[in-house]
Design a protein that fits this description.
- The chain has 359 residues and is of the alpha/beta class.
- Helices cover 40% and strands 17% of the residues.
- It is built from 16 helices and twelve strands.
Amino acid sequence: MDLQKHIEIISDLAEQVGKPVKFMEVCGTHTMSAFRSGLRSLLPESISLLSGPGCPVCVTPNEYLDKAIAISRLPGSVIATFRDMIRVPSSESSLEIERAKGADIKVVYSPLDALAYANSNPEKKIVFLGVVFETTAPTVAWTIREAAKKNISNYSVLCTHKTMPWAMDGLLMGGDVQIDGFLCPGHVSVIIGSNAYKFLTDKFGIPCVISGFEAFDMIASIEMLLKQLVSNCAVVENQYSRSVTPEGNLSALSLLDEVFEPCDIAWRGLGIIPKSGLRIREKFFKYDADMIFSDIDLPKSIQEKGCICGDVLRGTRTPLDCLLFSKKCTPDSPLGACMVSSEGTCSAYYKYRGDSVEF
């Protein structure tokens, strides 16, 4: 079926629904794909796409960044992190600013790189910033287990891993945003499986469709959500069946369970969401940077005045509602995390403000 036919079906289904609907694409990759392809401009006016808390860098609160920066100032400490974290503003500074002042901040492409660097530099204390969702968290878990096996004692993880289904639960429990359906994240779902979202449809009656990342994937997924609304049902459907199974990646899930345990954790803009985080289990406390640096002095956490990143992550406002957007806050001079990350909503709005369609 060609694109035009899908759009016609979506328009017909939207008329049958008979009211405006809001679908949230939880994943930042979906947000970027929707903008890059011009998908939003193809949809009927009654269908709105909201961007949710699907960017791990964006939902990392300032308190975490404050601690990472404080650790970076200690003699012999090395912060290993993905590139997106470098420029995120904290309460007083950023890792980029600290690096310019002489802090040892190492950009890595994988936590495996951080572990290898620790193994080859035993005189340094390597702290990896664990800010990822379930997609990459198994890799972090592997490095912790491997460090324990090889007794690499100078490696640790400052852990703030988060799990996506419980963030979606937290959004709906908050009640300040109306969501008629979720486009569930494909990459996360490869690990956790489609069954992980069933409690959302049972608890809230919200349709869920796990979507791939191409524009045609998202169009098909929106069509599936509309069909559920027309049929007055709420189930978990899997459009991304070429990669996602009901049970997920059992080996990865087993590794996560071995190294981490669920915990309540803070999300930028969402507050503390019960059971939505992963903390390092007691048997691996030797590799938990929170434990190693538990007595470190931290500044009072503050947010950039006027920044509405928290509202954007909840889907209650868009970057266009922010007085700082594209004026004081730009990719060259970001004031909020949503402008820094390559998957951030503000970054997407800034980069793809035109209506071009690229199929």
